[in-house]
């Protein structure tokens, strides 16, 4: 089986320090968290940033500063900025990190309920984002919260807007979207194109079981505070690295080797 790519989604847009005081938010904290997660076994850092008050922002300068600090600290993992940002942001705000020309960025593949909010990703927005990513040679991570999102991604492929390796991120368990279950994970992976690779992310208490099933099924795993702030019931995680470390232990037990950053690049065909 292919080596396992672990993505650390280190802060997200919604979680707060009140939820978990160990959440990294400032650029320096994010850079340190990325380095620790990479040392623990992560080869992709899925990145959101916050303003000085801790609110989600897509400000290009904040991304630039954070990525610079990560590189200065020696982070070699693929840095994958979010173009999703937070529900309610305009597309102009969301797309900003693309202009930093990262190796990879997320491309959200459809509108979805997101708790009490609606996270809007219509096809014109998706086409726009895909064109910009193509222009700057960025590999999109096709983020799907519902089965229909996979079909929308394939529609973009048909329209000639996705010209690189297809890599999906299947997010299960967002309130209002597809529930996190093994049956749903099997269904989502069955409708992916054969030559695509995929990561799965389970939200909240589903992070661990979804990860475990994914390791066995040959997919790749996303963990981190964006999706889950607990290590186990009633015990907050002490760091993103702690969540990554557990996946490494499980993968070792299950005979799945861990991909280093350059091995992840090879799997994703970005080198
Ligand atoms: N914060 C969510 C509304 C992405 O990173 O591309 C969207 C999100 C997706 O996190
Ligand atoms: Zn995200």
Architecture overview:
By secondary structure, the protein is α/β, with parallel strands linked by helices. It has one domain: TIM Barrel. The chain contains 9 helices and 14 strands. It has an 8-stranded parallel β-sheet with strand order 5-2-1-12-11-10-9-6, with helices on both faces. Helix 1 links the parallel strand 1 and strand 2. The two termini are 20 Å apart. The site of (5S)-5-amino-3-OXO-hexanoic acid (KMH) has 12 residues, from strand 6. This is 3-keto-5-aminohexanoate cleavage protein. Pfam families: BKACE. GO terms for molecular function: 3-keto-5-aminohexanoate cleavage activity; metal ion binding. Its cofactor is Zn(2+). Keywords: Metal-binding, Transferase, Zinc.
Topology:
Blueprint: E1 6-9, H1 27-40, E2 44-47, E3 49-50, E4 56-57, H2 60-73, E5 78-81, H3 91-94, E6 104-108, E7 112-114, E8 117-119, H4 123-135, E9 139-144, H5 147-158, E10 167-172, H6 182-190, E11 197-202, H7 207-217, E12 220-223, E13 230-232, E14 235-236, H8 240-253, H9 261-267
Parallel strand pairs: 1-2, 1-12, 2-5, 6-9, 9-10, 10-11, 11-12
Antiparallel strand pairs: 3-4, 7-8, 13-14
Bound molecules: (5S)-5-amino-3-OXO-hexanoic acid (KMH) and zinc ion.
